[in-house]
Amino acid sequence: MDDSLNIQIEEALKAYRASGVEDQVNYQKFYIYSIVTNSTAIEGSTVTEIENQLLFDEDIAAKDRSLTEQMMNVYLKDAYLHAFRVAAEIPTYTPKLLQQLSALVMRRTGSEYSTITGQFDSSKGEFRLCNVSAGIGGRSYLAYNKASRAVDDFCRWLNDEIAKVDKANIAACYRLSFEAHFRLVTIHPWVDGNGRTTRLVMNMIQRQLGLVPSIVRKEDKGEYIQSLVDSRENDDSTIVQDVMLRHHIVNLKRRVSQYQENDTVNTQSDTVNNTISANNDTVTGLKKSLQKVYTTILNNPEITHSEMMETLHISESTAKRATRDLKKLGYIAREGSDKTGRWVILK
What we know:
The chain contains 13 helices and 6 strands. The protein is mostly helical. Strands 1-2 form a two-stranded antiparallel sheet. Helix 12 crosses helix 13 (316-328). The model is unreliable at 275-281 (pLDDT under 50).
């Protein structure tokens, strides 16, 4: 166990809450959208956060995404809203509750199965009645006839641990949620949707304990999955705990930084717009959308398109189109590669 992470998460969470980032309008809603988008991306979804926002808020489907993966995101979002309501009621975790959560996640995307041991329906959250394997080499999970009993034991363990954990110990609370995720996904009680459902349970525990829910970002998928494998093979869950704690610390710091940068950009944009009106500045001819991107680049010439997307809350394609237009108009040029280069200001 990396004890230094215990101190870092305390500091990161304190800075996060003091920054005011959570005070933004609709921030909690968009945070859930981010959790959902990344969780489904771990399972292969290609739907972006911007596309999910349009889907969830405006009922506008993405043209280039399959109906199945879009519904996967809709149902997971609904499952999170339900789970967080339940978390506020300080629930007792039972196999029935876990099945209800799985049923919400797998609603209309699950299937009925007929095996030699019986029939079960994954869309109803029913536990598997067949053996499953996954990953490199087809690693087998717990035998189906032991899964139900294992879930019973898991629920007893989880309720006991939540009751006795020191709620003031931030690191201990996060580690408990990560341990719960690891234990439940290792049992693999469902034939499908185990990753999404067990991460949902993890976030539900965090919400119940008054924590900021952690996000397993799609960019961290490889290290996240490898940490689960390493923890199982070494019978040491602190491996995955450390990895997920470190990822969460980085994410909290990133969100504070983006919020502060965006606040600076908005202030600078107001200044630029005022200057434009008063002095007929060279930016006068630019559309407002281009003005914002141009001002962002002025503030940070090393910024990438993906960072523009998160800072300005626009799609990556919109950011690329804006920089392309700014280059054509002679305002900026690109020096170096897309990842390691920088923008050159020409006007």
